[in-house]
Write a structure and sequence with these properties.
This protein is of the alpha+beta class. It contains three helices and eight strands, in the order ααββββββββα.
Length: 213
């Protein structure tokens, strides 16, 4: 009986060996098949971060565009502010008809003054009714101011200076310092008037009246 069983086992051994040999290639084939699909998802997964980087670059450009827009807005705002400021300055510089009439009476040119001084009055061509008043150690930008006496008066509000013009002479004063900068300044027209006054001095209210006949 034992001999029969041993003989049967010997006959079945080659069959088991063949079965194992056949199973191993199948296992290897299954392993390779399983490995290949696993590799593809890994490649796709690796590709996705690359796509993420590309997507990240796009928002960076959008961010740069967003930065450019505020810069453009600031430029427009600055330009608008400058225009408003220029409009305010122009409005302040605009003169009334009465002031423009005074400006037409201002004597211009280089005028000799007492003590060898000179004052030059020049009309500003860019701003009608305004004048540059210059001399040694001073320079003012003036505009006319109406007076009740009819005297031609120019003022530089910032510099605190005043130019007064009457028929026979002009003078420049610094009101802030309480100082007379130039006196007895005469244009050619004022020289003529001054000579006429010397020849025919006006009657003073302090002079005694002529005796009645």
């Amino acid at each position: 009986m034992k001999f029969v069983i041993a003989s049967a086992l010997m006959l079945l051994a080659p069959t088991f060996a063949l079965a194992q040999t056949t199973a191993q290639p199948a296992a290897k084939s299954d392993t390779k098949s399983a490995a290949k699909p696993a590799a593809k998802p890994t490649a796709k997964t690796a590709a996705k971060p690359a796509e993420g980087k590309t997507a990240a670059k796009a928002p960076a450009k959008s961010h740069a565009t967003a930065k450019a827009e505020p810069t453009s807005s600031r430029t427009q705002l600055k330009s608008a502010t400058n225009q408003v400021a220029a409009g305010i300055i122009a409005a302040e510089a605009a003169l009334s008809p009465a002031e423009l009439a005074i400006a037409e009476r201002v004597h211009v040119g280089r005028m000799p003054c007492e003590l060898g001084a000179f004052v030059t009055v020049t009309a500003d061509p860019a701003t009608p009714g305004h004048f540059h008043v210059e001399g040694k150690g001073f320079k003012y930008y003036m505009s006319p101011v109406a007076t009740t006496t009819g005297t031609v008066r120019l003022e530089d509000a910032k510099g605190g200076a005043v130019w007064l013009q009457i028929a026979n002479k002009s003078m420049l004063m610094n009101q802030r310092a309480g100082q007379r900068l130039a006196d007895e300044c005469m244009s050619p027209e004022q020289v003529v008037v001054a000579e006429a006054i010397k020849k025919n001095p006006p009657v003073s209210v302090l002079d005694p009246l002529p005796a009645a006949k």
